[in-house]
Amino acid sequence: MGPESFRWSYLLLISLFYSYVSCSSVEQKIYIQLNNTVPCVRLLNATHQIGCQSSISGDTGVLHVFESEADLEWILTNGPHPPYMVVMEAVFFTRPTMMRMKNSSRVAGVAVISSSTAPSEGFSPHTRCPNQNSGVYGESYGPELANCNNTVWNPLGNNLSYEDFAFPIFFLENDNQTQVIRKCYEDHNVRVNGTAPEYPLCAMQLFSHMHAVTDTVTCMRRTDLQNSFSINPEKLCDPLNDFNVWASIRPLNSSIKGHKENESVVIAATRLDGRSFFWDVATSAEGTVSGIVTLLAAAQALYPVTQEAPPPRNIFFTFFQGEAFDYIGSSRMVYDMQNAKFVIDMDNVHSLLEIGQVGLRNGSNLWIHSDPVSRKNSSVNEEVDKLVKNMQSVASSLKLSVEEPGSSQALPPSSFQRFLRARPIPGLVLADHQSAFINRYYESLYDTPAYLNLTYPPDLSPEEQLEYETEAAKSLSEVATLVARSLYTQAGGDDQFLSNITADTKTVAKLLYGFLIKSNNSWFSSLLPPEALGRGSILGTGAPQYYIGLRLDNTVKSVTRFVQFILANMTGTVLSLNQSQCQNPNSVPDQSKDLYSYSWISGPVSANGTAESYCVRASVRLSKALSPAFELLEYGSREYSTWTESRWKTIGARIFLVASPELEMMTLGVGVAVLIVSLLVTYFISSKAELLFSSTREAPATTY
Amino acid sequence: MTAAVFFGCAFIAFGPAFSLFIFTIARDPLRVIILIAGAFFWLLSLLLSSLVWFIAMKASNAEDTKVQTGLLIFGVFFSVLLQEVFRFAYYRLLRKANEGLAAISDEETSPISVQQMAYVAGLGFGIISGAFSMINILSDTLGPGTVGIFGDSQYYFITSALMTLAITLLQIFWGVVFFDGCEKSRWWVIAVVVCLHLLVSGLSLLNPLYEGSLPPVYAITVLMAVWAFFASGGSLHNLSLLFTRKILFVLQLICFVKM
Question: Origin, by domain of life (chain B) (predicted)?
Fold first, then answer.
């Protein structure tokens, strides 16, 4: 007996003689659980549901590996064992294929295996016109520019992320387990010369049942009903939410909300989130990280100069969360400003500079987009022209070229649009594209560090990679310098200090490494507070993902935390306070929690393994990024984002064999035969027991 | 579809035990009590052997497959011996109870014969051991998967059910023969029963070589059935009597129809 058969008999015996064994032992012989799976989940807005779901007990289908277009015919028409569970490489995950499967009842689900090579023709499962209904353009504001009439920003968008699939779709990391799946398929399911494979067949089951249906209005109504009547209420969906991060060059008193006298701020904004077709898989290198890194590096470059020679206007850095889902973060900040719930209000806003996608600029070209509708107002136009001139003069000193794309072109999808909805303020959006996005993988799986040309020479250790200045880092640090200098002049700073403002390429390199390759690195951990490290560390193992998700217990998404503490370290002062003073600074003279936030930072680990912790005082704060629709309880709002994520109980995937119907029927037949025969025989013997066992006693007690 | 496997396996494993119960046990309260008590004694033996197993598992190195193999074989044989010890204990208890039953009975004899007690006690052992061996497996027959992804036989479920059926029947026959041996003080009979029990359990170690385990187990079952038939007062004479009656009856019927 081999070890395998031995394990088998062990199993049988255990179940024969020992009840002390969990029932999973047979299960382990039947199922292979797949780890490293990411589902596509259901999201809802005011009118629709999108995403995927399985039935409540999971969807099962015979495995079929999609290797060529011919397989599609087999799956959808010829194959004799429907429904099929389709396993495909990411290259086959295209709209035509998925839509044909969507309309077929012969597909039980799809598992997409990640692949390192991106399709050269581009792939974006997002819409062609991102956030078209929540931006500024509409019937009352530049109707000729509404719905991307003028420029289609994401021409490769195929809308796949916004389809509603009735079957589960999972994403599998390409690892040993996909090899197991392939092996199972090759052993059992492969067609020989076009004839159907024989039972037992390899099958897969996917669990991703979603609790919410129809739309946000319905699911919030049901949740509220449960909350008011049930003792044990169960939520069906939660609004997407997290936090925006903001900081200002001069501290703003956060205990006083509303208008600040004599305060005029220049807002420097970027977005903090992205998405892809699948839940919590969003590397968003070009889409999001290029902006985050640029703005952080610009903030760091600006800080020392603004302390020496403070410009007349304040500079306000902000990172908006949830912008991929109808501008959750920016709409909330604008809403708070309008309702005197924020440290400043709209009157305090002088102008705005937003960093869009800047990682893929072609040569030295950058483009500054502005809003043609508000520029019809001469005073706004004047200001915008000034901003453009400032920026162009800064750019020319840096040997960059910054151009305007044309006066009639609308703004690309940007947080600035939410500010324009409230008031025509002057502002610019800096991006690497003239009209349509250069990014061919907008909000997709392929928007990876590799796409951003973030490549390291081989045989570098992680620490060396962290420090390595890639081409991408050099390019982004130029952009960061441009942004920092433009902000300084925009804030009214003196031109003579401009040459002191230069973004550090090394910092940009480290930021790129931390935000795109591996957040668990020595530099990130030295900038975070000790409680964020250690057990339950927010650093995670791989690259951070940029899907906003939702916060159930007021925790903060790890990416938001990274930005918060990196910004605090870059724009803060180190104080000589001990840990308890740092955590409670109001007891220390001259320190105020209203003006500053105080964080106790781990500090770099020295050679002997101890970390030098210190206290940082900065003006960095978090502000809620929950759509105002959920504050106002307007779940059907057309004004604000209404995106919610459905709740679910189990997400799982497993493969196993299914027996032939003949074998199953044979088992049942044998069972029924055994039952009937035993009933007849027992009846016969018990009725003749007296006769059969007569020698036992003269008069048996039995009365049969 | 997999509900078919569930019901098929359940019928195979528990169909005979079920029909025996409804036709021979259910109508007599005394038999029900003896059956339940028998099941309880088997459970006690299981409790003890699982205790020993638990300690052995904790004490041994889980990585060492050789030790684990040895432990498994030891565990099987230990458990079998314990079951037989408890069968004997149950026999002693029933003998005592039988005297008491005879004392309070109107007819001065016990209302139940030793052979009947042996059969009922054996069925008690059989039902409970069958339940314990099969229920875990039954819960997994509901599917959707079947055994085999690691290259195991796809007949696992049906063979497990057949094995359970054999074990249930064997427990009945062993009970009858064992009690008969005790009654007549023929110790070799008890020894043979224990040895056969050890043999059957040992044969299941051959799995998944079902050709190696199932046919011998069924051969032993048939043999034990014959032995148990004679031990409980059956004889060839009775059998022929039964069949001649049957034939006579059939002949009469034919004559009646012809007339």
Answer: Eukaryota
